[in-house]
Amino acid sequence: MNLLDSQRVQALLDRAGAEPQAPLDSCRLFHGRGQCYPGREHIVVDFFAPVILITFFAEPHPDELPQLLDEVAPIMAELADTVVVQRRYLAGSPNEVVKGQLPEDWRARRGNITFGLSLQGQQNLGYFLDMEPGRRWLERGAPGKKVLNLFAYTCALSVVAVAAGARQVVNVDMSKQALARGRRNHQINGLDKRASGFLPEQILKSWSRVKKPGPYDVVILDPPSFQKGSFVASRDYAKLIKRLPELMPGGGEVLACLNAPELPEDFLSELFSEYCPGAAFVERLAPCDDFPDKYPDRQLKLTHWHLPAA
Protein backbone atom coordinates (compact mmCIF):
# COMPACT_ATOMS: atom_id res chain seq x y z
CA MET A 1 0.00 0.00 0.00
CA ASN A 2 1.24 3.48 -0.86
CA LEU A 3 2.02 5.81 2.01
CA LEU A 4 1.28 8.87 -0.11
CA ASP A 5 -1.85 9.74 -2.09
CA SER A 6 -0.68 8.77 -5.58
CA GLN A 7 -3.35 10.97 -7.18
CA ARG A 8 -1.82 14.09 -5.62
CA VAL A 9 1.64 13.09 -6.80
CA GLN A 10 0.30 12.55 -10.30
CA ALA A 11 -1.59 15.85 -10.23
CA LEU A 12 1.66 17.69 -9.56
CA LEU A 13 3.36 15.88 -12.43
CA ASP A 14 0.40 16.67 -14.70
CA ARG A 15 0.59 20.38 -13.85
CA ALA A 16 4.28 20.37 -14.67
CA GLY A 17 3.65 18.57 -17.95
CA ALA A 18 0.89 20.98 -19.00
CA GLU A 19 3.20 24.01 -18.72
CA PRO A 20 6.77 22.70 -18.72
CA GLN A 21 8.36 26.16 -18.61
CA ALA A 22 6.16 27.59 -15.86
CA PRO A 23 7.46 27.47 -12.26
CA LEU A 24 5.23 25.42 -9.97
CA ASP A 25 3.53 26.79 -6.88
CA SER A 26 4.59 25.29 -3.58
CA CYS A 27 2.06 22.82 -2.22
CA ARG A 28 1.35 20.13 0.34
CA LEU A 29 1.57 16.71 -1.28
CA PHE A 30 0.35 14.71 1.71
CA HIS A 31 -1.41 15.77 4.89
CA GLY A 32 -1.54 12.87 7.30
CA ARG A 33 -2.17 15.21 10.23
CA GLY A 34 -5.81 15.56 9.19
CA GLN A 35 -6.41 11.93 10.22
CA CYS A 36 -7.97 11.03 6.88
CA TYR A 37 -5.32 8.37 6.29
CA PRO A 38 -5.33 5.83 9.16
CA GLY A 39 -1.88 4.87 10.32
CA ARG A 40 -0.24 7.81 8.54
CA GLU A 41 -1.25 10.62 10.87
CA HIS A 42 2.40 11.34 11.64
CA ILE A 43 3.45 12.03 8.03
CA VAL A 44 3.42 15.32 6.11
CA VAL A 45 5.06 15.90 2.72
CA ASP A 46 5.54 19.34 1.14
CA PHE A 47 6.91 20.47 -2.21
CA PHE A 48 9.01 23.62 -2.35
CA ALA A 49 10.85 23.26 -5.66
CA PRO A 50 13.50 21.94 -5.93
CA VAL A 51 13.03 20.45 -2.45
CA ILE A 52 10.67 17.83 -1.05
CA LEU A 53 10.24 18.19 2.70
CA ILE A 54 9.11 15.10 4.64
CA THR A 55 8.03 15.80 8.21
CA PHE A 56 7.53 13.09 10.82
CA PHE A 57 5.51 14.01 13.90
CA ALA A 58 6.18 10.61 15.50
CA GLU A 59 8.98 8.10 15.07
CA PRO A 60 8.46 6.39 11.70
CA HIS A 61 8.60 2.68 11.10
CA PRO A 62 12.04 1.72 9.68
CA ASP A 63 10.46 0.97 6.30
CA GLU A 64 8.54 4.24 5.98
CA LEU A 65 11.28 6.62 4.88
CA PRO A 66 12.64 4.26 2.18
CA GLN A 67 9.09 3.76 0.89
CA LEU A 68 8.40 7.51 0.85
CA LEU A 69 11.61 8.07 -1.12
CA ASP A 70 10.45 5.47 -3.66
CA GLU A 71 7.04 7.13 -3.95
CA VAL A 72 8.46 10.62 -4.55
CA ALA A 73 10.98 9.28 -7.08
CA PRO A 74 8.83 10.39 -10.08
CA ILE A 75 8.87 13.96 -8.72
CA MET A 76 12.59 13.75 -8.08
CA ALA A 77 13.13 12.62 -11.66
CA GLU A 78 11.45 15.72 -13.10
CA LEU A 79 10.91 18.52 -10.58
CA ALA A 80 13.15 18.20 -7.52
CA ASP A 81 16.68 17.22 -6.60
CA THR A 82 16.68 17.38 -2.80
CA VAL A 83 14.82 15.64 0.02
CA VAL A 84 14.87 16.98 3.57
CA VAL A 85 13.49 15.10 6.57
CA GLN A 86 12.33 16.97 9.66
CA ARG A 87 11.67 15.01 12.86
CA ARG A 88 9.22 16.98 14.97
CA TYR A 89 9.06 14.25 17.61
CA LEU A 90 12.67 14.92 18.65
CA ALA A 91 13.87 17.84 20.74
CA GLY A 92 14.72 20.79 18.52
CA SER A 93 12.93 19.25 15.50
CA PRO A 94 16.21 18.39 13.72
CA ASN A 95 16.42 18.46 9.93
CA GLU A 96 18.43 16.13 7.74
CA VAL A 97 19.16 16.39 4.04
CA VAL A 98 18.84 12.76 2.87
CA LYS A 99 19.16 13.40 -0.88
CA GLY A 100 20.80 16.20 -2.84
CA GLN A 101 21.85 19.57 -1.45
CA LEU A 102 19.77 22.34 0.03
CA PRO A 103 19.81 25.48 -2.16
CA GLU A 104 21.44 28.56 -0.64
CA ASP A 105 18.53 30.70 -1.84
CA TRP A 106 15.54 28.46 -1.15
CA ARG A 107 12.07 29.89 -1.68
CA ALA A 108 8.39 29.08 -1.59
CA ARG A 109 6.54 30.15 -4.71
CA ARG A 110 3.01 31.47 -5.20
CA GLY A 111 2.38 32.60 -8.74
CA ASN A 112 4.85 35.38 -9.48
CA ILE A 113 5.67 35.91 -5.80
CA THR A 114 8.37 34.10 -3.84
CA PHE A 115 9.16 33.87 -0.14
CA GLY A 116 12.51 33.06 1.46
CA LEU A 117 12.71 29.78 3.38
CA SER A 118 15.07 28.73 6.15
CA LEU A 119 15.68 25.56 8.15
CA GLN A 120 18.13 27.11 10.59
CA GLY A 121 17.16 25.23 13.75
CA GLN A 122 13.49 26.11 13.36
CA GLN A 123 10.31 24.07 13.07
CA ASN A 124 8.76 26.50 10.61
CA LEU A 125 10.28 27.41 7.27
CA GLY A 126 8.80 30.89 7.16
CA TYR A 127 5.80 30.22 4.91
CA PHE A 128 2.56 28.45 5.85
CA LEU A 129 0.87 26.59 3.01
CA ASP A 130 -2.45 26.24 4.87
CA MET A 131 -2.87 30.04 4.96
CA GLU A 132 -3.65 30.12 1.24
CA PRO A 133 -7.38 30.87 1.73
CA GLY A 134 -6.35 33.90 3.81
CA ARG A 135 -3.92 35.05 1.14
CA ARG A 136 -6.67 34.84 -1.50
CA TRP A 137 -9.06 36.76 0.76
CA LEU A 138 -6.48 39.48 1.31
CA GLU A 139 -5.62 39.65 -2.38
CA ARG A 140 -9.26 40.50 -3.11
CA GLY A 141 -9.72 42.93 -0.24
CA ALA A 142 -6.39 44.75 0.05
CA PRO A 143 -6.25 46.98 -3.07
CA GLY A 144 -6.26 50.63 -2.01
CA LYS A 145 -6.56 49.76 1.68
CA LYS A 146 -4.42 50.33 4.75
CA VAL A 147 -3.73 46.97 6.39
CA LEU A 148 -2.56 46.06 9.90
CA ASN A 149 -0.84 42.68 10.01
CA LEU A 150 -0.54 41.57 13.64
CA PHE A 151 1.82 38.70 14.50
CA ALA A 152 3.26 39.18 11.04
CA TYR A 153 6.10 36.64 11.38
CA THR A 154 7.92 36.74 8.00
CA CYS A 155 5.25 39.02 6.49
CA ALA A 156 4.01 36.71 3.73
CA LEU A 157 0.52 38.21 3.99
CA SER A 158 2.00 41.68 3.65
CA VAL A 159 3.84 40.68 0.47
CA VAL A 160 0.57 39.42 -1.01
CA ALA A 161 -1.31 42.56 0.04
CA VAL A 162 1.29 45.00 -1.32
CA ALA A 163 1.59 43.03 -4.55
CA ALA A 164 -2.22 43.23 -4.87
CA GLY A 165 -2.18 47.02 -4.50
CA ALA A 166 -2.61 47.75 -0.80
CA ARG A 167 -2.00 51.41 -0.01
CA GLN A 168 0.12 50.45 2.98
CA VAL A 169 0.69 47.46 5.27
CA VAL A 170 1.96 47.80 8.84
CA ASN A 171 3.58 44.57 10.06
CA VAL A 172 3.90 44.00 13.80
CA ASP A 173 5.78 41.15 15.47
CA MET A 174 7.90 40.84 18.60
CA SER A 175 10.68 39.07 16.67
CA LYS A 176 13.10 41.46 14.98
CA GLN A 177 14.62 38.50 13.17
CA ALA A 178 11.26 37.47 11.70
CA LEU A 179 10.56 41.04 10.58
CA ALA A 180 14.00 41.24 8.97
CA ARG A 181 13.07 38.18 6.95
CA GLY A 182 9.76 39.86 6.16
CA ARG A 183 11.52 42.96 4.89
CA ARG A 184 13.69 40.71 2.74
CA ASN A 185 10.58 39.04 1.32
CA HIS A 186 9.36 42.43 0.13
CA GLN A 187 12.76 43.21 -1.37
CA ILE A 188 13.14 39.97 -3.34
CA ASN A 189 9.75 40.64 -4.95
CA GLY A 190 10.70 44.19 -5.95
CA LEU A 191 7.86 45.79 -3.98
CA ASP A 192 7.62 49.49 -3.22
CA LYS A 193 9.43 50.14 0.10
CA ARG A 194 6.99 52.93 0.94
CA ALA A 195 4.06 50.51 0.99
CA SER A 196 5.17 48.49 4.02
CA GLY A 197 6.26 49.24 7.57
CA PHE A 198 7.72 47.00 10.26
CA LEU A 199 7.20 47.41 14.01
CA PRO A 200 9.13 45.10 16.39
CA GLU A 201 6.73 45.23 19.33
CA GLN A 202 5.23 42.91 21.91
CA ILE A 203 1.69 43.57 20.76
CA LEU A 204 -0.23 43.21 24.02
CA LYS A 205 2.03 45.80 25.66
CA SER A 206 2.35 48.26 22.77
CA TRP A 207 -1.14 49.28 21.67
CA SER A 208 -0.33 52.99 21.44
CA ARG A 209 2.53 52.31 19.01
CA VAL A 210 0.42 49.84 17.03
CA LYS A 211 -2.47 52.30 16.81
CA LYS A 212 -0.36 55.33 15.83
CA PRO A 213 0.13 54.52 12.09
CA GLY A 214 -3.64 53.92 11.70
CA PRO A 215 -6.52 54.10 11.27
CA TYR A 216 -6.74 50.83 9.36
CA ASP A 217 -9.20 49.48 6.81
CA VAL A 218 -8.21 45.82 7.20
CA VAL A 219 -6.86 44.10 10.34
CA ILE A 220 -5.33 40.63 10.38
CA LEU A 221 -5.24 38.77 13.70
CA ASP A 222 -2.94 35.76 13.27
CA PRO A 223 -1.50 34.99 16.71
CA PRO A 224 0.26 31.79 17.78
CA SER A 225 -1.96 29.46 19.76
CA PHE A 226 0.70 29.30 22.47
CA GLN A 227 3.91 31.28 22.79
CA LYS A 228 5.42 31.02 26.26
CA GLY A 229 5.63 34.36 28.01
CA SER A 230 3.95 36.19 25.14
CA PHE A 231 0.59 34.88 23.97
CA VAL A 232 -1.86 32.15 24.93
CA ALA A 233 -4.90 32.10 22.65
CA SER A 234 -7.36 30.85 25.26
CA ARG A 235 -6.37 33.71 27.58
CA ASP A 236 -5.22 36.55 25.33
CA TYR A 237 -7.25 36.49 22.11
CA ALA A 238 -9.97 38.58 23.74
CA LYS A 239 -7.41 41.36 24.28
CA LEU A 240 -6.96 41.62 20.52
CA ILE A 241 -10.64 41.63 19.64
CA LYS A 242 -11.64 44.34 22.10
CA ARG A 243 -9.06 46.70 20.51
CA LEU A 244 -10.53 46.49 17.02
CA PRO A 245 -12.89 49.53 17.26
CA GLU A 246 -10.01 51.85 18.18
CA LEU A 247 -7.76 50.42 15.46
CA MET A 248 -10.38 50.90 12.75
CA PRO A 249 -12.84 53.63 13.86
CA GLY A 250 -13.99 54.04 10.27
CA GLY A 251 -14.93 50.38 10.12
CA GLY A 252 -13.51 47.72 7.86
CA GLU A 253 -12.74 44.03 7.48
CA VAL A 254 -11.10 41.67 9.96
CA LEU A 255 -9.44 38.33 9.29
CA ALA A 256 -9.36 36.48 12.61
CA CYS A 257 -7.21 33.34 12.48
CA LEU A 258 -7.09 30.55 15.03
CA ASN A 259 -4.61 27.69 14.77
CA ALA A 260 -5.53 25.84 17.96
CA PRO A 261 -7.11 22.42 17.37
CA GLU A 262 -8.33 22.28 20.95
CA LEU A 263 -10.41 25.47 20.56
CA PRO A 264 -13.62 25.27 18.49
CA GLU A 265 -14.77 27.86 15.96
CA ASP A 266 -17.38 29.00 18.50
CA PHE A 267 -14.49 30.25 20.64
CA LEU A 268 -13.99 33.19 18.27
CA SER A 269 -17.72 33.83 17.89
CA GLU A 270 -18.15 34.06 21.64
CA LEU A 271 -15.21 36.46 22.00
CA PHE A 272 -16.51 38.76 19.26
CA SER A 273 -19.98 38.70 20.80
CA GLU A 274 -18.61 39.76 24.17
CA TYR A 275 -15.71 42.06 23.31
CA CYS A 276 -16.65 43.51 19.91
CA PRO A 277 -20.43 43.09 19.60
CA GLY A 278 -20.68 45.56 16.73
CA ALA A 279 -18.74 43.24 14.42
CA ALA A 280 -20.75 41.02 12.10
CA PHE A 281 -19.64 37.53 11.15
CA VAL A 282 -19.33 37.21 7.37
CA GLU A 283 -17.91 33.73 6.78
CA ARG A 284 -15.39 31.10 7.67
CA LEU A 285 -13.06 30.76 4.69
CA ALA A 286 -13.10 27.33 3.08
CA PRO A 287 -9.93 25.42 4.00
CA CYS A 288 -7.22 24.66 1.48
CA ASP A 289 -7.88 21.49 -0.54
CA ASP A 290 -4.35 20.27 0.23
CA PHE A 291 -5.27 19.96 3.92
CA PRO A 292 -8.11 17.42 4.24
CA ASP A 293 -9.23 16.89 7.81
CA LYS A 294 -11.49 14.33 9.40
CA TYR A 295 -12.46 16.88 12.05
CA PRO A 296 -12.99 20.32 10.41
CA ASP A 297 -13.32 22.07 13.77
CA ARG A 298 -9.70 21.15 14.50
CA GLN A 299 -8.39 22.74 11.29
CA LEU A 300 -6.91 26.19 10.95
CA LYS A 301 -9.86 28.54 11.35
CA LEU A 302 -9.89 31.64 9.14
CA THR A 303 -12.89 33.85 9.85
CA HIS A 304 -13.99 37.07 8.17
CA TRP A 305 -15.74 39.77 10.22
CA HIS A 306 -17.11 43.18 9.18
CA LEU A 307 -16.84 46.07 11.61
CA PRO A 308 -19.07 49.07 10.84
CA ALA A 309 -17.89 52.64 11.36
CA ALA A 310 -18.13 53.90 14.90
UniProtKB/TrEMBL annotation:
Listed EC numbers: 2.1.1.-
Pfam families, per database record: Methyltrans_SAM
UniProt keyword list: Methyltransferase, rRNA processing, S-adenosyl-L-methionine, Transferase
Enzyme class, first EC level, given as a word: transferase
Domain S-adenosylmethionine-dependent methyltransferase, residue spans: 28-301
Source organism, top-level taxon: Bacteria
Keyword Transferase recorded: yes
Keyword S-adenosyl-L-methionine assigned: yes
GO MF terms, alphabetically ordered: methyltransferase activity
GO BP, one annotated term: methylation
InterPro entries: SAM-dep_methyl-trfase, SAM-dependent_MTases_sf
Transmembrane feature ranges: none
Protein's name according to its UniProt entry: Class I SAM-dependent methyltransferase
